[in-house]
Amino acid sequence: MPDKAEALGIFLILLPGFAAAYLVQLLAARRKQSELDKVVEALIFSLFLYLLTLPFFGYALPIAWHPGDEKHPEAWQIFIVWPHLLALAFVAVVLGTIYAASINHNWLTWPFRWLRVSDRSARSSVWNDVFSDIDGFVQVGMSDGRSVIGWIRKYSDEDEAHVLFLEEAAWIDSNGNESPIYGPGILLTKNSGIEYIMFLDSVSRDASTNSE
């Protein structure tokens, strides 16, 4: 068997699992993984994908190779079962999407929390966990004493970044008076020195606006 053909066969066999793993990396906010973790996860995806598709294709791999005839024994013929590969690609997208959604929505560890086996979240951090479940109107306090209020529009996945984008934002002075920030909003980065974030009822903002 030529080395190039063998490498092609291994590549095609493992590609669906790595594609599913890459899709999860793209869609899900998750804890950092080592390179070994990523490879192991991709191999596990490959195993599941073949367990799901092999019964429909005679328990045969999507690629096969055979030696040539007597006149050309050094020539090898490679056969690719395209319907099987297309099925693997489709199932890889579906499986990767469902797995990413289970991480983002914290479905992955829900049975264990329900059984009181663990309180751990599948999400990447407490920061991400909180903002995934709670949104709306917040007041952000910073290390220099300033504070700003607004509606959460975007937030970073990792708590180390501490990045927030607030819409309809306004600065708050020591007397509680608002100074509107005219424009789309304000981007608070890690250098802003965020010390706390208070999640407030929208009624608080409506009452403040009406009082003006």
List the helices and strands and how they pair.
Elements (H helix, E strand, L loop, with lengths): L2 H25 L7 H19 L9 E5 L8 E5 L1 H23 L5 H5 L11 H8 L3 E6 L4 E9 L8 E9 L5 E3 L4 E4 L5 E7 L1 H10 L1
Antiparallel strand pairs: 1-2, 3-4, 3-8, 4-5, 5-6, 5-7
A few lines on this structure:
With 212 residues, the protein is an alpha+beta fold. Helix content is 42%, strand content 23%.
Notes on the structure:
With 212 residues, the protein is an alpha+beta fold. 42% of the residues lie in helices and 23% in strands. The model has no long low-confidence stretch (mean pLDDT 84). It has 6 helices and 8 strands. Helix 1 packs across helix 2 and helix 1 runs parallel beside helix 3. It is elongated, with a radius of gyration of 26 Å. The strands form 2 sheets. Strands 3, 4, 5, 6, 7 and 8 form a 6-stranded antiparallel β-sheet that branches. The chain has 2 domains: 111 residues, no CATH class; 86 residues, SH3 type barrels (Roll).
What keyword list fits this structure?
alpha+beta, SH3 type barrels, six-stranded antiparallel β-sheet, 23% strand, elongated
> What distance lies between the first and last C-alpha atoms, to the nearest angstrom?
81 Å
What is the helix/strand order? HHEEHHHEEEEEEH
Shape: elongated
What is the overall pLDDT average?
84
Low-confidence stretches: none
Which strand-content bin applies to the residues?
15-25%
Q: Specify the helix fraction band.
A: 40-55%
Largest sheet: 6 strands, antiparallel
How many DSSP H or I helices?
6
Count of strand segments:
8
- Taking all Cα atoms into account, the compactness measure Rg is 26 Å
SSE class: alpha+beta
Number of domains: 2
